[in-house]
Specification:
globular, alpha/beta, homodimer
């Protein structure tokens, strides 16, 4: 959602004669961006563009000046975009602003009764925060360069500008070192990036207006460093991958950070550290990255330190988009800061920690929810309406598929793997209404340490972090309840869903019992069918205007309690709205 | 289907400890192939392999000798594969045979109640024909290198060994020439392969046991050559892309071919030409490629010429797989040849002509049907059972997705493009039962010349060439009819499908009317609903044991005739089985 939008009249048709002209500042980076823009627009519409030479350009671009050779924090990203029925104009103080405006143009283009078109509109836009990042952990599971590249494409589409590359942790050191070859030789499973690949990725990101911030996690989370070089560690060694942290003394850490900061500063770089680095002995040039909450951001700002928020933006915790959307860097403790102190809060970063992702399913863990965090960091704080947020998120999600992201398509492949040659229609019905367990519930001390080389090919690994179907069903129940059970269209749709679920286990059970990856889902499917039946019976009582008997209600609530428990590490997300129907049917005459 | 299969007892589990050992002949090509094999097996199962050092290998590979540096026609591709519950062994006279055997192993691995496993089996296998090719036309629509590469992966999976690269035609010359730069400069739309890209593709194909045969189509179909060099043509010029053939005199062609063959032979290459090159003045070393049928193959063989069949294997004609499967190079006129003459028939090639494909949908036009042609050319002539062919084709189709082919997934993207942000469930119901018009029906003289730069983003471009749903529905109607209308399970399933179709237009119509790419499908959706209703009424009459009245039957047949006509260039494929139900319901007491 741009900072300012003024709707116009009419629309600009996108046809084969679409073309772009650039005036003002121009460079190879902008040329590349315009070419990618045209390719993406062509993919979105399925239209190969063939403008006639000399024709008036459809979109005129003008930038005052070029970008910094190395992207800087706080560089001007603003732009103005005017679309009229006869043409569009994009202007910006810098070519970086042009990049952002082109992504907005792509989002405006829609299919209409008369063709693809962008609605007439005047947009004046700039980001709320200068630092809008995504952290990708490549240590716990290695993520290949091509997967990172398509995620950079996605980040550019949602105007994020920092890739925080979590390159080392206990489970693997992922950067080639020519001088300390045992860092990867012993401190990884053999999977790492060469220096050439890293240079290539940085250039790829820069083309898209994204800075790459490498993270070498120290002094904790550094087991992988000392496997090859145990003399650097304080303990007796030897060390292996995947053990606990080697150090954890706060004073030692502060001393360590002071020494480290001097090295970093000498190389003209800025030191960023998690909350724990905050210590009065460190200079004000450091940036505090908060995984603990707005309180530590506020504490840092009050002492004059700049800060970033990641608390509330951990994508690996499997929260719904709306919950991330509700987290604001300026909320809670930060809301009480003075304007000067607020100015020290630079923005935030979504975090994709990699305990439970592989190159196969990482896209679906990041997208489309990351688009919502990106909007929170770009758009005005007042943009808060949840239904319209979901509408925008779904539109962006479809757009992202044209960039090669597999956040929707990977699930189909994974369900087919589990099902063998069988039809997956009934399996998809089940997968559509479950979500992975939340927060850290997949992992418990009782299960022992995580095996980072175990297969991630179960239903929990395939399903989306947030179920669209469950959300829509729940919304529909609210609509139905608010109508005092009179909304016939809502009731019909509820019945269709409930009947599909009720009948699904009969179709699905034979498959579940035949393949070992699905056997754990047998009770899950049975519970879904039971919920479908309970919901239908509740609607029957409501239809007849009868109060459901207590004995029935008690039975259904017992069943609902059973269905509420995680099974196979996933949750049935339609439990609460079905419970609502059951309780309504038992309460109507009281 | 291998030449010889002997089932054993038990199965070989595929677990994280899976490993491969190679003895005998070994080279970099084989090492690369084994690595790709392990990666593909890992993708199929979702299991990252981690064999312990020194453990007994799961699969032992032994080849007597290496491959030819440049792959030859008739090189030994045979192999033997034995799978037992304790391990598997693959042996072959050449490492090329090992490549083929590894693909068979991948096809054996299935999900079972106890895990992924390959069944115990002894296979002795070799190809029926030494030449098993796929022609891809890259002139009419340019197909980028990465799309060709994933299709080479698919070809290797189904053991094809020739990529026939149709590099030039009237619509574009696609090879960089440093000496005659106007060949691409004026004879293409700017899209062509550099010489480095061509070398890279040839190496990529060779790694996978595939020869690349370039085709420069002359003397006809060579408009693109003479645009830049009109002095080479007999007419007055100037020429433009996309006009008709510049020459067509048979005697002139024979004279031309004689001169050309001498040049080709001097470069130690073999000349292959379409049927028209057959002429007694040409030497017996040429190969006749028949697009006209087995009769010209037989005529060529009788004169001592080698031949290839492509008649019946044109994938762009949108035939069902079973129709391609029924075409055999040794059938019809070829069946009457002597054994020596039969030995001159080298095999055949599937052809993907590119009037109506783009990089986006070419995979779905080639796959999975090409797997059936590949099997026809590899497996014994007696392999003819249609239902088991479809079962194998569907299994291979799923396997191909792990190679990155988009033959299933592209449709989803294209339907979303047409639907905008709307839900596509109802649109998919319609897309599931339609196929593109067949043969050359998409194109008529009345429509004028094809615009090779027009968007290909309609429903015809998105749907699969063969509808699985329609085939399954038709099979079910046959089962129901054969049971004398008593098979209750079949009837229930028929009712479910018919009701879904009957009710679909109500859900789909609002979307169809709102987006310009779907407006043409409004009557199609209405017809599908009418067919669903007609089928359900027919089942009602059959249920009640009533003869359907004549007036009803007449109405329904009129509606069926209407629905049989192509609309929006697609065909509703459930017309015939619904008609069968209607006629059965009206005939039951006569």
């Amino acid at each position: 959602m741009p900072a300012s939008v003024q709707a116009g009249t009419g629309q600009l048709p996108i046809t084969q004669s679409f073309s772009v002209a650039v005036t003002g500042s121009q460079d190879a980076l902008l040329d590349g961006e315009v070419q990618r823009f045209e390719e993406q627009l062509s993919r979105q519409t399925g239209i190969p563009f063939r403008a006639k030479a000399g024709a008036t350009p459809t979109l005129q671009i003008h930038a005052e000046k070029g970008r910094e050779a190395v992207q800087k924090l706080g560089e001007d990203e603003s732009y103005e975009l005017t679309v009229a029925d006869s043409g569009a104009k994009l202007t910006a103080p810098t070519t970086l602003g042009v990049l952002r405006g082109l992504q907005t143009f792509l989002q405006l283009v829609q299919i209409t009764p008369s063709g693809f078109a962008a609605p007439a509109v005047t947009i004046k836009d700039q980001p709320r925060f200068p630092w809008r990042g995504l952290l990708i952990d490549v240590s716990r599971h290695f993520i290949p360069i091509e997967v990172l590249k398509r995620n950079l494409d996605g980040m550019a589409a949602v105007k994020m500008n920092v890739l925080h590359w979590h390159l080392s942790d206990d489970q693997g050191f992922r950067v080639e070192s020519k001088r300390f070859s045992k860092l990867t030789g012993m401190g990884s499973d053999g999977l790492f990036y060469t220096q050439a690949e890293i240079r290539d990725l940085i250039a790829y990101a820069h083309d898209r207006g994204i800075r790459v911030m490498p993270e070498f996690d120290i002094p904790g989370h550094s087991r992988s460093w000392v496997i090859g070089y145990p003399e650097l560690a304080s303990g007796p060694g030897p060390y292996t991958l995947e053990d606990g942290d080697p150090k954890n003394n706060q004073d030692l850490q502060a001393y360590f950070n002071q020494r480290l900061e001097k090295i970093v500063a000498k190389n003209h770089k800025t030191m960023v550290g998690w909350d724990e680095i905050l210590h009065p002995n460190l200079p004000k040039t450091i940036v505090v990255h908060s995984w603990r909450g707005q309180a530590s951001l506020a504490a840092a700002a009050k002492q004059g330190y700049r800060g970033l928020l990641s608390f509330g933006y951990y994508l690996d915790l499997m929260w719904p988009a709306a919950r991330h959307d509700a987290v604001d860097p300026m909320a809670d403790a930060a809301a009480t800061l003075t304007p000067e102190e607020k100015g020290l809060i630079l923005g935030g970063e979504a975090c994709q920690w990699a305990e439970w992702v592989t190159p196969e399913n990482i896209d679906s863990h990041i997208w489309p929810r990351n688009a919502v965090i990106a909007e929170r960091l770009w758009s005005p704080q007042e943009v808060k309406d949840v239904p319209s947020m979901y509408a925008r998120m779904n539109a962006v999600s479809l757009e992202l598929e044209w960039l090669g992201l597999t956040h929707r398509s990977a699930r189909m492949h994974m369900l087919h793997r589990m099902a063998g040659p069988a039809d997956i229609t009934a399996l998809r019905v089940l997968a559509d209404v479950v979500e992975p367990v939340k927060d850290y519930d997949r992992w418990s001390d009782a299960k022992g340490p995580i095996d980072f080389h175990a297969p991630l090919n179960r239903i929990i690994d395939a399903v989306y972090p947030e179920s669209d179907t469950a959300r829509q069903f729940s919304d529909l129940v609210q609509t139905f309840v608010k109508s005092d059970y009179k909304d016939q269209a809502a009731k019909t749709q509820l019945r269709t869903w409930l009947a599909t679920w009720r009948d699904n286990d009969a179709r699905l059970h034979p498959l579940l019992s035949q393949t070992y990856l699905l056997q754990e889902d047998v009770p899950l499917s049975q519970d879904l069918s039971a919920l479908g039946a309970a919901g239908l019976q509740a609607l029957d009582y409501l239809d007849r205007g009868q109060t459901a008997p207590d004995v029935w209600k008690t039975q259904q609530l017992a069943l609902i309690e059973q269905a509420r428990k995680p099974m196979a590490d996933v949750l049935l997300m339609v439990v609460a709205p079905v419970q609502q129907l059951v309780e309504a049917s038992a309460a109507q005459h009281t």
